[in-house]
Amino acid sequence: MTQVLIKNGVYRNKTVNDVVFNLVKGYQTGAKGGYVTVESDGYFGAEFDVVRVRVDGIGDIEYTGGESVTATPVKPTAKVKETDEEAIARIRERFEILDQMTKATTCGDIRAMIVSGPPGVGKSFGVEKIIDKATLFDQLAGRKLKAEVVKGAATPIGLYQTLYKYSDPNCVVVFDDCDSILLDDVSLNLLKGALDSGKKRKISWLSESRVLRAEGIPDSFDFRGSVIFITNLKFDKMKSQKLKDHLDALQSRCHYLDLTLDTMRDKILRIKQIAADGVLFEDMGLDTDAECEVIAFMETNQDKLREVSLRMAIKVAQLRKSFPNNWTAMARTTCMKAAD
């Protein structure tokens, strides 16, 4: 019987990575994209016999055994499952690298970095903490700050003004949750200029602007600062070819750090890691047993929660502290999705 290796797929929110199944029907496309039909054989639960696993494209599968429809079929090797301890170590290392590279931007050693990861896992927290520390003396002395964290939407002219404001050496601009920049051609070209790895990064505004003229901002300048762009987008998973080409151009210009929190399990382990480090429930007055109850509740109900994030963990912990006798009922009502 022909078998298929699914490198990267999903069925009913369960991810499938490098798993071999008996093939029922080869790759097809439907209204929701590509899929391949396989025998579950207990992988998705005893109640499922034949399932359609969604994949991004035919490159996410390989046929093995029987008659292959790929040009060069490769027999998959068994993948050793990563233990919880190994996954936590991987996650901790990525965030430690993020801290180290952020520190390097504050002294100009790293000039441009893109940080990719899902929302609510603490991408911004460590970066903002390091930026605050780097600007502490400027804040106390009332001097112009050498760094700023920009959140939310940014217009092209606003982006140009911000880059000019922090264009001096050792200045840092952090764009957090500013993905709208990537959807505007003018903003995108400005960002490309700021992230460029060349020795000289010249940024220009080619349109007449009374706003820039009134503020004494020139129509071109050399950007010598550093940029950190924090995004929820995973650059290598974009389906829009046009946007993917732009993201590839950005990625080639600077350091790209993927925090590799790609599964629900990774998010739960990130919560466990932060809690074990004594940071997550800091100053909340919960004992160890209460903290463990909060995490166990999230792990048990991970598919029902509105989101699995550090923010959600804190919300549940607040309920555990305020309503010790019926906090689980409160959490189910306020933190879970409505039943269909």
How many domains would you count in the coordinates?
3
**Mean pLDDT across residues:** 88
Strand order of the largest sheet: 3-2-6-5-4-1-7
Structural class: alpha/beta
Number of strands: 14
CATH architecture of the largest domain: 3-Layer(aba) Sandwich
The percent of residues in helical segments reads: 25-40%
Number of helices: 11
Specify the CATH homologous superfamily of the largest domain. Answer: P-loop containing nucleotide triphosphate hydrolases
Brief overview, please?
With 340 residues, the chain is of the alpha/beta class.
Explain this structure to me?
- It is a single chain.
- The model is unreliable at 66-75 (pLDDT under 50).
- This protein has three domains: 3-64; 84-258, Rossmann fold (3-Layer(aba) Sandwich); 264-335, no CATH class.
- The strands form three sheets. The protein has a seven-stranded antiparallel sheet with strand order 3-2-6-5-4-1-7, with no helix packed on it. It has a five-stranded parallel sheet with strand order 9-10-13-8-14, with helices on both faces. A two-stranded antiparallel ribbon has the order 11-12.
- The protein contains eleven helices and 14 strands.
- The protein has 340 residues and is α/β, with parallel strands linked by helices.
- It is 38% helix and 21% strand.
- Strand 2 (9-11) and strand 3 form a beta hairpin.
- It is globular, with a radius of gyration of 24 Å.
Question: What descriptive keywords fit this protein?
Answer:
alpha/beta; 11 helices; seven-stranded antiparallel β-sheet; 340 residues; 14 strands; five-stranded parallel β-sheet; single chain; Rossmann fold; globular
